[in-house]
Amino acid sequence: MILLCVVLRATDNGSKDYPAYGPQVKRPLRVRVLQYASLVLAFAGLALLYLFSVNRDIPLVRVSEITPTMNFAYVRMAGEVTRNAYVFESGGIVFDIKDGSGEITVMGGRAQAQSLEAAEKLPRRGDRIEVTGSLSVSADQEPKLRIQSADQLILNRKRVAAVPVAENRVRLADVTAAHKGDLVTVSGTLKSIDIPGPGSKVPYVLTLAENGAELAVVFWEDVFQGLEKKLPMPGKLISARGRIGVYKDTVQLKVREEGDLRIMESGK
Fold it and tell me: Over the chain, what is the mean pLDDT?
C-alpha cells in the first residue's frame, strides 16, 4: 500500500513538471482576437487591391514613351490617323496613328474589323481617335498596338466641307452587293421594324418592299434620337438615302443622318 501511494504521488508530481500539448491547450482570448483580426485585414487588403486594379484608369501613353519593358502592357493611345484602315482578306485590320511624338501601327482581328465596319467606325486619314489595347514590343520590330475590342475605339471624324451630291435613285430590285460603298437613294413601303433591346449595340432595321423586292435599311441610336424617338408606321412609303453595305452576306442600306430618312406622300 505504501509503495502504491509513492508511485501515485510520483506520477502526479511528474504530470505537473511537463508542459501540455495539443487541443487541450486553450489560447488566451487576446491572441485569438488578434488572429481573427489579421485574417479579416488580409482579406480586406486583397479585396481593395482587386477593386483598385479593376477600376483604375488605363494610362495614356505617347509613342515616344514606349520601351521594351512595356511589352503586353495595356494602355490608351490618342492621335491622328495617318493611313486609312485596311481590312485584309483574312479579316484583320490595320491603320496608323501619330501623336506628335511618333507614329504607331494599330492592328486588330476579324471580330474587331467586322464590328468597326458594321458601326461605320473604320478610321480614315485625318480622323482623331483614342484607342485602348495591348502593346507588342520587340527588339527587332517597331512597336504595335493591338485592339482587344471595337468598343475601345473612340472616333472623331475629320470635318470636311459639304459638297453637293447628285441624287442616285435606285430601285430596290437593282440593289446588289456590287453597289457596296455607293451612296444611293431608295424608296419603298415599310414592311416591318426591328427595334434593338435596351443596351444592345445592334442597329434599328426598317425593311422596305417594292414590287416583290426587299431591302433592310439600318441606322443606329444617334439617328433614332434625331428622329425624336419616333419611327414611321408599317405601310408608309419611305425614302432612304445612305451607303450600301454587306453584313453577313446580307445587302443593306446604312443611313447616317436623320434627314436621310423621310416619309413620302403617296405618288411622290
Answer: 82
pLDDT of 181 strictly over 80: yes
Q: Which residue is it, cell 477593386?
A: 51
Count of Cβ atoms closer than 10 Å to residue 43 Cβ: 10
At residue 139, the pLDDT reads 77
Using CA atoms, how far apart are residues 203 and 193, in angstroms rounded to an integer?
11
Strand 183-194 relative to strand 204-210: parallel, antiparallel, unpaired? antiparallel
Q: Mention every residue, 6+ apart, whose C-beta is less than 8 A from residue 207.
A: 190, 191, 192, 193, 194, 214, 215, 216, 217
Given the DSSP bridges, would you call strands 141-147 and 93-98 parallel, antiparallel or unpaired? unpaired
Kindly state the helix (H) or strand (E) to which residue 139 belongs, with its residue range: none
pLDDT digits 0-9 by tens, 20-34: 555 555 556 666 667
* Distance of alpha carbon 217 from alpha carbon 122, whole angstroms: 20
Percent helix, strand, coil in the chain, to 5, is 30, 35, 35
Place of cell 521594351: 68
Decide if 206 contacts 193 (C-beta within 8 A).
yes
pLDDT at res. 225: 81
Q: What is the pTM of this model?
A: 0.48
Q: Tell me how far apart the alpha carbons of residues 206 and 233 are, in angstroms, rounded to a whole number.
A: 10
State the burial class of residue 162 (Cβ atoms within 10 Å of its Cβ: 0-12, 13-18, 19+): exposed
Q: Say if residue 9's pLDDT is above 60.
A: no
Q: What is the mean pLDDT of residues 152-167?
A: 73
Q: Answer whether 250's CB lies under 8 Å from 214's CB.
A: no
3-class DSSP assignment, residue 77: strand
Percent of the chain residues topping a pLDDT of 70 = 78
Instruction: Report the amino acid identity of residue 24.
Output: Q
